[in-house]
Structures are given as C-alpha cells and as structure tokens.
Amino acid sequence: MSAVSLIRYALVFLAVAIGVALIVGVLNAQVDSALGSSAQLMVPAMIGAVVEGQQFARREKRRPKGAEAWNFTWAATGIAVVLNVALAYGGGQWLPEFGKLAVAAPGSRQFLILLGLYAGGYLICNRVFLGIAAGNQLSLMRSKGEIE
C-alpha cells in the first residue's frame, strides 16, 4: 500500500466521519432525541478499508498478501486514532457530535483505556474489511471477465 492509499484512507475517514456527524445532528434536531453511538466511530474505518481493499484489487488484480495487509492495517489504525482524537477534542466547536466523543481528559487513565479500545476496534475493522473488499472486488472483476 502506498502513501496515496493512506491519504485516500484519511480523506474517506474524514468525509464519512463528518457526514455521519451531520446526519446524526440533523436527526437529533428533527426528532428531538439523542441518537449516536460509539458505532459511528467505527463506520469511517470500515468504509475507508473497503475503499482501499477495492482499489488494491483493481490495481494489483489480487488480494493483499499478509505483510501488505498488516502494514496497511497498522498505518490506517494509527491514522484513524489520530483523526478520532483530533475530531473529538478539536472538532466539537464545529460539530457538537464530535464534542460528545471527548468523554475523558487527555492523558488520563480513562482516556488511555478508551484510546486502546478504539485502536483495537480500528485494527480489527481495517484488517477484516480490507480483505473482504479485495475479495469481493476480485469476484466482481472475474464475473465481468476482467481477470481470470
């Protein structure tokens, strides 16, 4: 996976995170409720990994090998954690949904535990969805006769 892949992952992650926050904010205003959950933190990583798995399969005509997949997974997880912290502690002034994510004081024990939990979730999402998307893209390409 290249630097372009990681930049694209970061951009997709940001776009999805902002989009989900906007949708949740509008729905909360419309139905006067408190929608939103920690699941909305994982969706950007899932979609980012899907996009990268598809792109890899299109470009390489194969699934990523173990080391390639894990290298992407670790880098993407680092990106996701950094973006999550930046959005939670810096984005709340623009989108209140992000401010709700900042539930612990930076550097506190609770913060470190939550950071570890989110990092683990991002690691799993990135690895699983990268492989699923690459495999699905290859199946689609085979069905269209683009590869054998």
Write a brief caption for the model.
With 148 residues, the protein is mainly α.
Describe what this molecule looks like in 3D:
With 148 residues, the chain is mainly α. It is 78% helix and 0% strand. The chain is built from 5 helices and no strands. The protein has helices at 3-31, 39-60, 66-90, 96-99, 109-143. The radius of gyration is 17 Å and the shape is globular.
Number of helices: 5
Please report the distance between the alpha carbons of the first and last residues.
23 Å
The count of β-strands is 0
As a percent range, the share of strand residues is: under 5%
**Any idea what the shape is?**
globular
**Order of SSEs:** HHHHH
Structural category: mainly alpha
* Unreliable residue runs: none
- Give the biggest sheet: none
Which value, in Å, is the CA radius of gyration?
Answer: 17 Å
Overall mean pLDDT stands at 90
Helix content class = over 70%
Keywords:
single chain, 148 residues
Strand and helix map with partners:
Elements: H1 3-31, H2 39-60, H3 66-90, H4 96-99, H5 109-143
Helix pairs in contact: 1-2, 1-3, 2-3, 2-5, 3-5
